[in-house]
Amino acid sequence: MIELLIAVAGIAVMVRLIPSFMLYAGFSYPNAKFSAIPNSYIKEREVARLLELKNLEDIKNNVVSRDFILEGETAREIQQSVDASLVRIISMAKNDSPSKIQCFYDAYLEKIDAETIKKAVKSIMEGTETEGVAFSDAGKELLEKLFGAEKEDIIPILREHGYNVVPEMSYDDIENAIDRRSMEQLLSVRLPASCRKARDKFVKTMIDIRNIKTILRGKQYGFEHLENYILPGGWELSQWQIREMLKTGTIPEIISMLEGTSYMPYLRQAITEFETEGVVALERALDRCLIQMAGDISNDNTLALGPGIRFLVEKELEARNLKIIVKAVAEGLQEDARKVVVTV
């Protein structure tokens, strides 16, 4: 009888563990694939090499990658092919991942679409032609409604799609509401318990970095009411720390208030560049910090979502670098581009 009870208990334990084992097994292929794909276009040497090229045809011939396929004749067409490549990459990551994780990649595509949505809203408010391409299903539906819309249609359309906006909002307020919803979407997708901490740390780190950038840029250019553009729910920075940073008068003082956080070493290293380049040097340092923190999340969650998060961060920054390089080479602005590309 005792042996029977032990056997039944063992079977019960196994039944409970089987789903977890199956989930971990489902990560083995995509995570190995993510690790095998290089991140060439955030490497300093490779980015510097591309910035030495003389024309767009050289760029197309020198970007040899199974990820990014550069096509088109004009800078804009090539940049659009970079965006299309990034979407294919994210879709590949989604399709290779366990089904319970795929909603995370959908939400990430919506985050990328947020930039296009913001540009469309700005175009409507300024009375200029609305352009852009969305890649997520939700983004496509929203952008389709914005095309051809009038200024008074913006708020009802955004509210219909879940954005917390009201008629008296300025463009900056609307932009902030779009960013806020992007983060909320990523944090609210239903994931297995083994993936939630990695997701939360990633998204809340992005919130911290966005808030720091908002404060630094606001202080640099004398913007008012910065508190209206702060997103809640960061990973390391509490609301009282944010409030104290907002009260602080100078950028060096703001940086000193980040002592003890993961962001401080990167900002400290960029102080000299800040003195000659301005706040863009600090923003670049924070992007490097995000790359490193995504790597740490990957190392701490190797059997779950971690490698996918690292992969997304690296590929999005690679795409951004490539678009900057394309524009710089087309317009002869390589020196300016060196200030904004992010390399490790």
Structure description:
By secondary structure, the chain is an all-alpha fold. Helices cover 70% and strands 0% of the residues. The chain contains 16 helices and no strands. Helix 5 (102-126) runs antiparallel to helix 8 and helix 13 runs antiparallel to helix 14 (279-300). It starts with a helix and ends in a 7-residue tail after the last helix. The model has no long low-confidence stretch (mean pLDDT 92).
| Beta strand count | 0
Helix/strand/pairing category:
mainly alpha
Distance between the ends: 63 Å
> SSE string, helix = H, strand = E?
HHHHHHHHHHHHHHHH
- Bulk shape: globular
The percent range for strand residues is under 5%
Regions with little confidence, pLDDT below 50 for 5+ residues: none
The averaged pLDDT comes out at 92
Largest β-sheet summary:
none
Which range best describes the helical content: under 10%, 10-25%, 25-40%, 40-55%, 55-70% or over 70%? over 70%
Rg of Cα set: 22 Å
Please report the number of helical segments. Answer: 16
Quick summary:
With 344 residues, the chain is mainly α.
Task: Give the secondary structure arrangement, pairings included.
Blueprint: H1 2-36, H2 44-51, H3 56-62, H4 75-96, H5 102-126, H6 137-146, H7 154-160, H8 171-188, H9 193-221, H10 239-247, H11 251-256, H12 264-269, H13 271-277, H14 279-300, H15 306-331, H16 334-337
What labels would you give this structure?
single chain; 344 residues; mainly alpha; 16 helices; 70% helix; 0% strand; globular
